[in-house]
Each structure stands twice: as structure tokens, then as C-alpha cells.
Amino acid sequence: MSQILIVEDETHIAEGLRFNLEAEGHGVKVVENGEDALRTLLQEKEPFDAVVLDVMLPGKDGFTVVRELRQAQDYVPVLILTALGRPEDVLIGFEAGADDYLPKPFNLDILMARVESLLRRKKWLKETSSTAPTVAGSSFRFGDKLVDFEQLRLHSGNRVFQLTLMETDLLRFLITNSGRPVSRKAILENVWNLHEDTDTRAIDNFIVRLRRYIEVDPANPKHLLTVRGVGYEFVAEPEG
Q1: pLDDT digit string (tens) for 52-93?
Q2: Calpha distance 131→147 (Å, rounded)
Q3: Are residues 39 and 110 in the same domain?
Q4: Is 169:238 a contact under the CB 8 Å cutoff?
Q5: Domain containing 194: what range?
């Protein structure tokens, strides 16, 4: 039975989610603020398979909660619920380390499907024991680096970096399009499923973070290149 933490201060929403998730056979705990969520996850270390996290909370907001979880090396899958519908706000959540989002008001069937998707990913991680899978499509090697798409890890020399789902999906998209520039708009549409024609610093910040993992000199990248006026390009084998 999967365990799900709901962080929501609106009682009718929290109890509705509890009822429906428990009806699907999941164990559910509800807390009303960010401080209690962090205490439950980081101090009391209660095991959860996914977190449904409202952004607009009393005290610490949802963005802060997920950011502190990731800083503490806690990579429990997080679905954020936000009444902030602007793409910029959604990307702030992804930049903080969220794995998925839904705008409020949300369709219950869609929310349940998103939660099940996160739980499947969690199950895959538990069932995958190899740190260097050989199944086609589950990993990608370039130079002395290995991207493990199933375990969300980047092996670089003797270092291992844990990636969030969004970092992994962005890197997968760039690798899939290796050797040709991809626009920020294409990233918005294909990685974040946002179709608004917008440009935000959040994408750039994701690239900066990935460069810290991948590049020998992040200030002079060889693999994750900026294409001026367009976006970014992944190069597996740089010249020279």
C-alpha cells in the first residue's frame, strides 16, 4: 500500500483528496502547513511514496517546502497544487524540485492519474537495483559520464549526482535532440507541457544546474551549449 502525504490548509480539499486516495487503496496523512510537512518528512522521517503539496500555505509556502526537501537530499516525488497559473510560477515550482503540478481548481480524475504516475516512478526506482542499467533507452553514456534515467542519477567520474524528475526529463530531451539546437519554447512544450509562448529564467537556471553536474568548467561548457537567440544544444562528443 502506497503512503501519500497531503499538505493542504483548505480542509474540504484535503479531506476530499484523502477520501478518494484511500478509496484507491492508499494510506494517507494530512498536514496543514509547510512546517509540519518538513517535520514529518525530515525530522520524523515518516516514509511516503508521494506528496501532494499546495503552494499557498500558511507559514512556509509549497515552493519553500520542496526546495528544503531537495536541499536535504529527500527526493520523494512531489505534485504541487497551485492557484498561480502563470507559466513563470509553475517553473518556479519545477526549479525548486517539484516533479509535477496541477493548477487549481483541478479535475479530480486528472489529479488521481498524476499521483498514480508518480507512484509508478517510485516503484520503478525501488525495483531497479543496478546502478548502471543495460536496458536500451534507460541510460546514456558520453565521455566518462552515465545518465541513468530510471534511477535519476548522473554518474560523472567517481561522483554520483541525484537528479529530480524534471532535471532528468530536461536532460533526456536535450540528449534526444543531440546535435541540434532546441528552443526554450520547445522545452516548455515538451518537458513541462506548457504551451504558452514565454521565456523565463527558470529554464536557464535548470541548465546552470545541469552544467554543474556535467561540465568540467561550467563557465565554459562543452556539452550543454547556449545557442544565442534560440536556446540550447547538447553535444555528446565536443570537438577538441
Answers
A1: 999 999 999 999 999 999 989 888 889 999 887 677 777 788
A2: 10
A3: yes
A4: no
A5: 139-234
Cell of 47: 516514509
For residues 66 and 96, is the Cβ–Cβ distance under 8 A?
yes
Of 32, 41, 31, the closest CA to residue 73 belongs to 41
Q: Distance between CA atoms of 110 and 116, rounded to whole angstroms?
A: 10
Report how far residue 159's alpha carbon sits from residue 42's, in angstroms, rounded to the nearest whole number: 24
Length of the chain: 240
Integer angstrom CA distances of residue 105 from 51, 83, 213: 18, 7, 37
- Paired sense of beta strands 145-148 and 3-7, if any: unpaired
pLDDT in tens, 134-155: 334 588 999 889 999 888 889 9
Distance CA 143, CA 238 (A): 10
* Host H or E run for residue 137: none
Q: Are residues 91 and 172 in the same domain?
A: no
Verify that 30 and 113 share a domain, yes or no: yes
In angstroms, the CA 189 to CA 201 distance is 16
Give me 196's grid cell: 504558452
Q: What does R_g of the chain's alpha carbons equal in angstroms?
A: 18
